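Summary for the lay section of the report: proteins are chains of building blocks that fold into shapes. Here we show the chain for Molybdopterin-binding/glycosyltransferase family 2 protein and then a coded description of the shape we predicted for it.
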Amino acid sequence: MRFGRFPVDEAEGAVNVHALRLPGIELKKGAPIDRPTLEKLRAAGVKSIVAARLEPGDVGEDQAAARIAAAIAGDHVRVDRAFTGRANLRAGAAGLMRIDRRAVDALNRIDEAATLATLPEFHPVEAGAMVATVKIIPFAVPAGVMERIRLASGPMVQVAPFRLTRAAVICTMLPGSTEKVVAGTLRTMAARLAAAGARIVSEERVRHEDGALAPALRRALACGAEIAIVFGASAIADRLDVIPAGIEAAGGRIDHFGMPVDPGNLLLVGRIGDMPVLGAPGCARSPKENGFDWVLHRLLAGLDVTSHDIMSMGVGGLLMEIPSRPQPREKAPDGSEGIGVVVLAAGRGTRMPHAYKLTATVNGEPLVRRAVRAALASKQRPVVVVTGHEAEEVRRALAGLDVKFVHNPDFADGLSTSLKAGIAALPPKASGAVVTLADMPKVDAGLIDRLAEALDDEAGTLVAVPVAEGRRGNPVAWSARLFPELAALSGDIGARHLIAAHAEAVAEVPVEGDAAFADIDTREELEALEIHELAEKASVDAGPALDAMKAEDA
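The coded shape description reads as follows.
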């Protein structure tokens, strides 16, 4: 291939290199330069053009990409039509990537003109997902290079389809095991399986004893389960522990215990007849990727998982941490400055148009001042107030109170901006924050303290929410381990989806009454609260007199 600047009169039949736009001419990169194009270039006064001219034997970029892609595509992989020197390969079925790493490396070393990029080995894919791409770097590949590639080619990229579709899940229980944890585990497991086209066909809860587990495993096998997953009430500590003992008591064997992947270290792999059995590590209760996924996917694809396979997972086995557990051997930082309170007071209050609701008074006290006084009455410090709309009014309403103000100029962009501003204003070593809303006048210091005290990083409790009759309310306490995720929020949403994403790390704090749910949005709600409080006060004030009257009657 000849590459360079050609006089326009000599460029016919070459390939344009750089996109060119002139009046009446739009010549794209890679476009062939034909006679009508030359006439337009001459008319526009163009004297020369950068182009590439193929020589005898050269294979054009699209044809070369298509040939290579077809040669390296294996089972359950299809090839898209080549364009601009690129041919994409796609999964023909949902499954796991199987890559011949040595062959891919060898192909990429033949010549810099031809490249092949793939997804990682054992990466799960959906049908239709792009799994690899062949890209030709120049506009053509010499015949000799294509011949060397042909000789080195063969199936290098294939998909192993998911094959197992019927799973049994067994949860062992100890005194104190909660239904909520089991329910969350089943939801997470069902979602994992669904992604691979599988489902739970049998679910059972048994005592955390090998004598109870073994019959459950036999029942799973009898019901046609193709794989069994056991979640222990207590983590597996040894090959002689309850779960491995239960597998062996059911007539099975233990293939491997432990893996060099974190999270996921305490995984156990066994088998009863043809049915694989997984003793799940605790991290498998979380939807976050962990070592359990690596083994589960291979088994669902019908692939063997040997001890050698598991022992070879160490490189790349330090996965992104799930926040509900500290980094390996990591402890909470020394010098923690405790848990703060963030009061969100930046909203516009559009449902109360005749007045700004946060500075509207309830029995003579601004709504925002009441919320901040409750925060100051708690044991948590500092108290950060985030202002936005009518910031000066809010500051005046809080005059004399020992708070730290932070202004959010982006308050109109949504609640998340105020939340991020408040978290950022806490001391660098703050261990957490209770986030409360300035329009919730019934929240008191006791509730704030109870939420803060429920956080426990070492136990993996990173979120605390008030709950009444199964309903979750506000405020919400957050461990500092989740501050980076709070800082990544955007738009007019709070952090509720983070609570769902970290369900295993949530503590529910029981509350009575409506303090965790009562917010003020309208003038009618404000007046109703004022009347209710006046009535309560009158009842309290009248109490001694009523008691005296009852005593006289007696």
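Put simply, here is one thing we learned. The longest strand covers residues 199-207.
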